Structure formats: C-alpha cells, structure tokens
Amino acid sequence: MTNRRRIALQLTALVAACGVVPLVLLAVFGLQILRRRGEGASQEALHAIAEQAAARIATYIAQQREMLRALAMAVGTQTDVERRLADVSLDAPSLGKLRLVSADSPTGARPRALKPEQIAAALRGTEVASDTYIVELSPAMDVCVPSGKRGTAVCATLDLLELQRQVQRIRVGEQGYALAFDRGGRLVAAGSGAMRAAVLSGEPVPESPLAAGLVNGTPAPARLRNGEGRDVLAGWASLTNLGWTIAVEQPAEEALRGARTALQFLGGGAAVILMASIAIGYFFARRMLAALELEERFRTAGRIAAGVTHDLGHRLTILRQIEQLAAMNDPDYLPRIRDALASEVITLRRFVTDFSDLTREAKPQDFIPIELNAFAESILANAQGYANEAKVGLEVEKAPSELWIRGDRYLLERAALNLTRNAIEASKPGAAVRLRVDRSDGQAVLAVQDQGAGIAPDRIDTLFDSFSSTKRSGVHLGMGLPNVRRIVVAHGGLISVKSKVGEGTTFRLALPANGNQSSSPSAPATMP
Amino acid sequence: MRRLLLLVSLLSCAPSQGRDSFVLTVALWGRLGQLHPINQEGEIVAVASPWVFEKLASIDATGNLRPVFATSVERVSGSRLRVSLRRESTFSDGTPVTDADVVRSLSGHHLQIQSPEHGVLLVEASEPGVSAEMQLTEANIFREVNGRFLGSGPFVVASENDGEVRLVRRRTERARVNEVRLIAYPTPRQAFQHTLKGDANMIVELEPRTIEILDGVPSLRVLREPGHTADAVMFNTRLSRAERVAIAGALNSEQVRELAYESGACTESREAHPEQPPMIPSGPALDVLSWGPFDRLAMSARRGLAERGGEVVSLPVQEVLNRVHSGQFDMIPARPLMWPPSVMVRIWHTGGPDNLTGYSNKTVDAALDAGDWAAARAAMLEDPPAALICTRERIAVVDARIKNAMLGPWELLETLPEWEVSQ
Question: Does ipTM top 0.85?
C-alpha cells in the first residue's frame, strides 16, 4: 500500500469516525426506540382486538339469553308448551333443544352441565347458567330461565358454534389468530388450526394457565411462547360473567415486521451512506494528497535548485578564479591552481555522493545483522582522520555487552558518519566527540555527542526538514539530517536530538534490537 | 470416474425410502371389524374392501356400470347380462383367478349364473327386486385358503387387530399410496381430534359443520362429492295418491330445508321446484315418527304439513322398524340410497329387499324391470312413495399432499390405489 493511499484511508476513516459514527449510533438508538414503540403499538392493537372480540361474544350470549327469556315468557304458561318449545327451536337453532324442566323431570331430561342446586334455583324462578363445555365439536352452555309457571323452568343448551366461528374468523395480519378459553383455562375455540385439536381433547396449551389466571385477576404477559414454541405478542381480554378469556396472538416476527423493515432499511441506508462517504472521502483525499505531493515536489525541487544554484555558484566562482589564475600563464601559480582544482574535485565528488545517498532505498530483505559496538568502532576508525584534522578528540563508549541490530550497513554508516562529521565540524579544537552505544527499552541506541555551540531551540523543530541547513559553507545541500532520519525510519527506528546552546548537542539513533546474531562482516566505511 | 458412475446408477436404481414412505392413516370410528369379502355390513373396515377384493364391476360417474374385474358387461336380453372376465389375474398369493373362483364369489348374491364358455358368464337376477347390475357391484372376488380370504386387488392386509388394520400394496408404486392404516376411534369427535392433531391424515363421512373447524389447517384439504343418499320422508302407502303428491310437493321445499338443515347442507338448488305445489287435502292430522338424527327433519316436516301436521313421536330405532313393518305410522324420515339409478330396484320395486314401506306400483315395477330409470322416476312422481328433501354431500378430509384424491364415484375410497402423492 502506498503512503498516499494509507494516508487517504486514515483521513477518510477519521472523517467517517467523526461524522458518520455518531449518526449511526444515533440511528441505532432511534431504531431501538422505534422497535419498542412498534411492539407496544402491536400489543395495544392486539389487546383492542381481544376486547372487541370479548364484547361481541358477551353481546351474543346476552342476546341468546334474552331471546330465551322472551320465548319462555311467551310460551311457558301455554298448555302445549312442550310442542311449542320444540317448534320454536326450529326457528332458533342456536338455542339448541328447548325443554320444560320441573321437579319431576327425569335426570336425562335435565341440562347436564347444571348442578342440582342450580336447577333447584331455576325452579324457584332464578335464571341460572352453566360454564361452557364442548358438545361434539363445538362449545355449548346450559341455561334455565323462569317459565312464568311456578315450579318449572325453560331450559336450553345454547349452541355456541357461532362463537367458535367468531373466534376462528379473527385474523391479525397473515398469521395472527384468536383463542378463547373457559374459566378453567380449557381452550374452547382456536383460530390457529394447529391448536384446534386441543379444543376437542381438552389438553392444556401454554396459554391455559395464563388465561385461568387472568380470570382470577393475574395479569397475562404481552409476549410469550405459544404451543408451537413461537415467540408471539398477545393481547388479552376477559369476560367476567362468562368466565371466558380471549387471547389474540400474532407471531412477533410478523407483528414487528414493519419496525424490522425500517430498521433494516435505515441500517442498510446508513451503511451505504457510510460506504459512500468513505469512498468519496477516500477519492477526494487521494486527489488532495496528490495535489499536495505535487506542490511539495515543486517546493522541494525549488529548494534543491536554490541549494544547487548556491553551492554550484560558489564552486563556479572559485573555478572562475582558478581559470583567471591559469589565464595569467604564470608558472608560479601552477601548484596553487593544481591544489585548488584537486580541492574542487573532492568537493564536487562529495556533492555527487550526497545526491547518490538520497536515491538509495533501504530494503529489509537485504538487511544483515550488525553488532552496534563494533559498528561504532568502525565509525570511529573512519572519522578519526577528519577529527584529527579538526583537532577534535573522538571516542567510543561501548555497551556492556554485544548489541545486535539488522540493517543496511552502508546506509547506517552514511547516517552515523554524517552525524559524526557534523559533530566534529560543530566542535572547537580540543573538544571531544563521543559515540555512545547503549540499550534502552529494548532498543539499540547509538548516540553522537559533541561539546559544540549547540543548536538554537527555534531550529530544533525544523532540523530534519530538507534543505534547512544554515551552514551553506562548502558543500551543504541541507539534505544530511533529513537523509539520516529517512535511513533510521526505514530501519524501523527513531532519531531524536537534545541540544543546549553553549554546551553541545546529542543525536540519538534508536533502532530495533535484534538479539544475539553471528558477527557481521565489518567492511570499513569511508568518510565522504 | 467409473466408480462414481456406478454409484450414481446404483443410487438411482435403489428404492428411495423417504420418497415412498408416505402412509395414509384414515381415522374412523365405531367397530372396525375384520376385513373379509362377505357381508361386511356395519363394519367400518369395509371401506378398504375395494383395495383388496376386486368386484366384477363398479359404477362410473354417470351411473353406468364400469367393468373392474370384468372386461365388459352387456345386457343380452331383459335382465340377463353377459360378463367377460379378465384373464391373467392373480390372487395375492400369486395363484391365478379362475372362472370357478368368480362363480363361487357370486353365490349368495341372488343371481343365476351360467358359464357358456371359458372367461364368459351369463348372469341374471334370481328373484324379483334384485338388480343383477347392482349385484355385480357388490360381490367381491375371492378365494378362501385355510380360513384366509385372498383377493385380487392391489392391496393386502399386512396386519389387523381390534383397533387398527394395516394394508400394503402388493407391488410398490412410485408416487402412490403404498401403505394405508385404518384406525378406529371410539367416537367421531376423537377421530376428528386425532386428525387435527396429525395422528391421522384422512377422515371420512364428515358433517358439513365440521368443515369449518378445518379452516386454517394447511396440511389437510376437504373433498366433497355428491352423496348417494337423500334425506326423505317416507309415506305410509295407505295415504291417498293425491295426498302423497301434495305432501311431497309441500315438503320438498326450500322452507323445509332451511328449517331442517344448515345453509348449504343440501345440494338441491333453490329453483328446483319453482311451481306452487298443490294444496294438501284436508284430513286427519298426520304424525311423524322420528328416530336417530332426524328430529329436526321430523319437526320441519310437521310444520310443512301445516294444518295436517300432527305429533312428532321420537322412538328408538327398533320400535320405529316395528311400527313401519306393522303399518302403524303416517310418515317417517329415512335416508334411502338414491344413486346409482339402478338402486331404485331394491328400494321401490314391489317386494324389493330394501322396500321398507311396502310401496308398490306396477308402472314403476315395469320400468325398473326394463332398466328404464327415467320412466320409473316419472311414474314415481305420479305416485310418490316419499318426499325427497335433501341430498347430502359426501365429505372427507385428506392429506393435502395427495394430488388427485376423490370420493366415489361409487364406493367411498375405491379410487385410492390411483391416488398420486406429491414428491
């Protein structure tokens, strides 16, 4: 991955993290609230449907009993009451078989679900009704009403098939259904085909205890697992007089489909927007970086041109002076001309070497083990001549044990020699430059310490920027320290500097220590 | 590669357990009985009879004979039929079915049988009121071996006990029903309950109101076919012809049907009898005997009689039969067979075995003897033995995976061996 791409991605991620992530979090919270609201609304709707169903059922039962009372009063005192009741049941089949019950009626002629005390009460003129029970395939209820004639009552077995139909007809969405339970929690009607066997068998379903509890005042849950193990939302209503409980259930998956769809839509939308913003951000970041890089290149080229113009101009001036000396054709000047040309050749060669160093890349696959104490000794040996010329002392302070690193020996030598030469140049005659090898925090450290004039604090921050050198005497492109930092960073290390004006400067190269290795060939470095 | 091809070949040849493992479990109620070919009246296992015991003929949807074991049935003269037999049929033990097996199977069915040549029988009713055609549809072809009855049908009984009969197909066929279990439950409610629960995947002879309970049960589907019986009110023949014509017209009305049955329970259309029926002549009140499931019909009939309506007297079945045989009744609800047309011989012919009320009309007899069903019906309209009120549908519920399930056209589940199961 190129630097530009990596920086573009980092910039994009930063923008995304700062802008989109808060929005996504906000959306997640919002959607959670939406989902809860949706569930609450669904439960309220199911509850309302259950209440409506319960009201309809109560009305139907009340109508049947009212009709029975009216019929009983109309025909109960007639002499042919039995025949009239039989005839009436043709017109009102929902009343079932109507009969006149008295104290003399045989047991088989009495309503089977009414207790003897209830029948006795009915014969005394009180209207009585049984709990619901299943006859053949549908629910029924025995009711006795006063006949208007002392000691008799008109009794009917109400056929509640219509109630079963009403419950079965309730549909909520595609999969929602209603259930009706009697006082004991027995299922008496089911809109769910899978649960209808329990209506006939009387086997309890998971909702049975909840329904029975609701009649006794225990609240029923609004979300539960039904007989098929499905997660359902439920609305409940109870008919106190009849002892029935109505439950309207809808699979949560279906009930919350709207909220879930919104959740998916918004979540998907947010993801798409995030991806789009990342893509756009990445695209524009790369373009901006490319523009910046181009501008930086022009700026760098300008600085290089300025440095080259300055340094070569200086050299040209010297060469022009040598040319003028040569034009005089004075043999006395020949040694001076020869020395001056030799010096300029050396100077220009160093100039070329500096450029050459800038183009050499560190390749990790080519790194070799290097023992840092020996490496420092090698640097000392190479720089000793230059130090002697400057009348500056040069010494090495080794680490107590071997300290290995891996690296491009040539480049590391260029970096170390560059720092050493700078230190020598910054030192006054008689001063000393020290190369100190040490281990610190798992890093192998080579420090180059001088006792020179030090660096002004305002220059420290730009010290490693290209072409920032202020020496400009001789050949100084200002690429030395930037190149040192480039080399150290390419080796996974760090360079730092501490300086105090009037006391001296210490450059510190921290490189990854690499354990014990076999000795490296220590080819001598050459002083540029 | 060769091994792979061989494996694929072997897999494609091997019977697929999952594919052919469909079992049809039929929920019934009442006494199951043991499957045998002779007189299984009242035993519900008889529903499986056509799969095990073939008959010479059955009846197609148009009411005509459809050869089964016979290859053809022709009327040669009067009531004499020429029956050509299928050759190369075998019983379930692999032995061939002979002409003698067929003749022996037909004995006891009130038929005179001659065998003029190999593979051909001449068949004629041996007594009045017997339809040779109907006898061919009732007699099972069988052979008794060591107390076991062998049939030539596609299924054999694999096991049977008081509560369950298991039948398997003699030769397994792909995408067909290859195994059937008949399970008898004590009550219709239990049979229905177990069907809803999934213990059975078919139940037959349902009441129309039970169908509503199956709404929303996707694993089952409803089969409805026209019924063979009609709810009727039979007349005592001592009522005058004019009274019977008027009463039949009055009772065969939408008003009576609406009173007696739930909406949609009868197949009769509202426009069936648009003309105004004649007034019922005045006379003494007419009582209606009621029994079994006919309370509402009896009361509805009494209301239909208007001024002539007497009492509705509910009695046990045996007492009702005694009264009918002794002529001590005016009218009685019953459920006679109405289809196929040839069944009229048994019910309305003078002296017919199922002629309970002693109805007799020479014109009707002559038409029935000639096999002219239309003429017989026309004559019965002039001299009605009963008021036909409601033709009920036959209703069953079957596993929705069966594609071409149907009831009838004659015996309830006779086409089951041809039913195809979705793969």
Answer: no
